[in-house]
Amino acid sequence: MASQYDVIVLGSGPGGYVAAIRASQLGLKTAVVERESLGGICLNWGCIPTKALLKSAQVFEYIKHSENYGITINGEAKPDFEGVIKRSRGVADSMSKGVTFLMRKNKIDVLAGNGKVKPGKKIEVTDKDGKATEYEAKHIIIATGGRARALPAVPIDGEKVIEYRKAMTLPNQPASMLVIGSGAIGVEFAYVYASMGTKVTIVEFLPRIVPVEDEEISKELAKQYKKLGVDIYTSSEVTKVDTGGKGCKVFVKTPDGEKTFDVDVVLSAAGVVANIENIGLEETGIKTERGKITTDDFYRTNVEGYYAIGDCTKGQALAHVASAEAIICVEKIAGLDHVEPLNYNNIPGCTYCTPEIASVGYTETAAKEAGYDILVGKFPLSASGKAKAAGAPEGFVKVIFDKKYGEWLGAHMIGYNVTELVAEVVTARRLETTGHEILKAVHPHPTISESIKDATEAAYGEAIHL
């Protein structure tokens, strides 16, 4: 007879392991299925190790510009690329071990192998030796995540045309790199490599880089990247990559005609696709749409007892979204009162390049298109004492309020440490805080966070420091 659980989670990323822990906390007998390392892409190949790479790049930038801080360094500073990669992998490994500890602490069974859902609330797990074992659960949560999208014209070979996983483990630093796509993954890796001396070119299909951000954010990042020496081609498309020679010859269709680039390596960062193949969806009858599993507001699929969360569903492909969905899904399964659907218009987005980007809610254009009469305030970090002292005066904080009721519609920031600021906006919007209340909330000085209040003052025509 198959082993029985209350909940089995397929996948142990930030959606899967959070779902498993919350289920266990609520008294449900729980298991999690994982074919690789606990923590999924986020801890092992995404969020965490990329931040380690970015920190190494930032430290190198500090060293190169140490004289700006009154510090003289004798001798040449250069990146130890192998050491940078090693440190990143070490950070990832330690975080994965932390999830292993959490599984033990919460008495969650870890079923190692490839999982496949089956009819009748069953899941089959095939281990590395090919042995298949069947398990049963009252509830099965699919949290299989996503992977790099491969463009038809640019097949990934893992050597000269790579995706983000390979970009974190290259044996040698390339002299030149072309990055396809300028979302978070593209611009973060562009900063890492460019700051360490690689000649980087970004090719973006849409009219501006980081295209999901407010238009002013895109303009500011482009300006700062050009100072870094990054070449940017927007409204452009890679039509072909010839890998027959020593490096890559890349053919790019631009508004000014076709251009060719000779680079050592091409990084394909054109988004992610869901991992939904070969996991039993068709056999079980679970519906999909446009490459994603279809769910309701509480992540129930069309088949009773089966749920889906994270990157394999329609929400934003972000780790914190997967975790939030996990908790909502499990609390609904457990029958808790007052479980609310997730407000996807109050999800923060963060990009950890330098300068950092953080945003939540409506962009200025989207707010106008939604019919709001708006107040917009901007505070340049060049006027921030903390930013100037840190040697990072680039960027700004921008806030958007509804003129009639003071509702906080959105905030968009680019600059030093702004990813640590956006949670204030998320919380304030959750509590339906108005701009007038932000004006009366005392912010500490000197901090980057007070720029939110300064921007709000600007929106209401009460700017003190401008």
Automatic annotation (TrEMBL):
Query: Which cofactors does this protein require?
Result: FAD
Cofactor note text: Binds 1 FAD per subunit.
Q: Does this UniProt record's set of keywords contain Membrane?
A: no
Q: Where in the cell is it found?
A: Cytoplasm
What EC number(s) does its UniProt record assign?
Answer: 1.8.1.4
Q: Which UniProt keywords apply?
A: Cytoplasm, Disulfide bond, FAD, Flavoprotein, NAD, Oxidoreductase, Redox-active center
Stored InterPro entries: Class-I_Pyr_Nuc-Dis_Oxidored (IPR050151), FAD/NAD-bd_sf (IPR036188), FAD/NAD-binding_dom (IPR023753), FAD/NAD-linked_Rdtase_dimer_sf (IPR016156), Lipoamide_DH (IPR006258), Pyr_nuc-diS_OxRdtase (IPR001100), Pyr_nucl-diS_OxRdtase_dimer (IPR004099), Pyr_OxRdtase_I_AS (IPR012999)
Tell me which Gene3D superfamilies the record gives: 3.30.390.30, FAD/NAD(P)-binding domain
Hydrolase in keyword set? no
Q: Which reaction does it catalyse?
A: N(6)-[(R)-dihydrolipoyl]-L-lysyl-[protein] + NAD(+) = N(6)-[(R)-lipoyl]-L-lysyl-[protein] + NADH + H(+)
Q: What is its main location?
A: cytoplasm
Name the family. Answer: Belongs to the class-I pyridine nucleotide-disulfide oxidoreductase family.
Q: What else is known?
A: The active site is a redox-active disulfide bond.
Q: What is this protein's record name?
A: Dihydrolipoyl dehydrogenase
Q: Which organism is it from?
A: Larkinella insperata
Q: Which gene encodes it?
A: lpdA
